Amino acid sequence: MANNQNSVKETVLEIDLGALTQNYHFLKSKLKSETKFLAVVKAFAYGSDSKQVALRLQEEGVDYFAVAYTQEGVQLRDAGITKPILVLHALTGSFETILNRCLEPALYSFKILKEFIAFTELHQQTSYPVHLKFNTGLNRLGFDESDVDNVVELCKKSAAVKVRSAFSHLAASEDLSEITFTLSQIERFQKISNHLISGLGYHPILHTLNTSGILNFPNAQFDMVRSGIGLYGYGNDPKFDSFLKPIATLKTIISQIHELKKGETLGYNRAFKASTPMKTATLPLGHADGISRIYGNGKGWVLIHGEKAPIVGNVCMDMIMVDVTKIDCKEGDEVVVLGPNSRADTLAASANTISYELITGLSQRIKRVYK
Ligand SMILES: *Cc1c(COP(=O)(O)O)cnc(C)c1O
Hints:
Blueprint: E1 12-15, H1 17-28, E2 36-40, H2 42-47, H3 50-60, E3 64-67, H4 70-78, E4 85-87, H5 95-100, E5 104-107, H6 110-122, E6 128-133, H7 148-157, E7 161-167, H8 179-200, E8 205-207, H9 211-216, E9 224-227, E10 248-253, E11 256-260, E12 265-266, E13 272-273, E14 278-283, E15 301-304, E16 307-312, E17 320-323, E18 334-338, H10 344-350, H11 355-360, E19 367-370
Helix pairs in contact: 1-3, 7-8
The protein binds pyridoxal-5'-phosphate.
Residues 40, 88, 169, 210-212, 226-230 line the site of pyridoxal-5'-phosphate.
């Protein structure tokens, strides 16, 4: 917690691992003590840093990790993650890496199930852990309810694999106007699970809740939950804002201040024209860092000394300009773009998108520092 507020000299993403720990324990407090917790750390832990985040959560006792793609799991293994890692969107070209790095694939179609069984048999595996993904209404990935018997038959026939878990994914758990649909998904998952258990003759880990599922439908926690966004401090509803804290603060500095005369234009395509004399600050981050052009021309803003400075003109690749006419500031001063006091969900809403897109879009060019 060093008081280095004014020591920022470039654009940085400051990651508060203490806030991560607090968010984890808040989410755990919604669950029975025996319910397992899977931390979703795909996409660089939602744009933060999957290595530091996963190491901290491993220390805190998380049971499982999930990534979207195999290569993300390799990075976790390289970082020293020894807990099981579920690859949510395994693809048939990555089986060799999956086996070599002890990753566990989600199998969601007959094609990938058969190919993975054949691959593990060829490599003389026994009881290699696999996860079965079922579609209960999202219609994105997964077996249907009517596939259960055939899936069971394929899995039982081979000693090479063993079903470690079965899961489904909710389509609208954050949307309380869709409660009926969510409950129908949960009910369908329960039916599929019963059918699967009686077919397999054992009880794999069952899981279907994401962060909003944990917060809104805790009765459907089954044996494990999968949380991403909540760990990073966003609960998809203002009523959870006081319990979850954004772990990442995007900070930068003022590179230069410009005085514009009335009638002068600013930035590419002369998109902004000063209607009165004004003062602007140029900041060293742009759309290549994840601040989309959508935030230009007054949609988005930053905080300078706690005051809101709107983005003026078009967002450039490596720079944005903000209006500081009414703010007492100078070159070198600190600027907060995102963080607990300048929330990603609020800024994202101004551009009709969601926190997930804004934070996962923060590019790897931005230096990560730790609190
Ligand atoms: C990304 C993802 C999650 C995490 O969802 P959050 O809303 O971030 O908690 C859970 N399950 C699956 C299948 C996912 O793809």
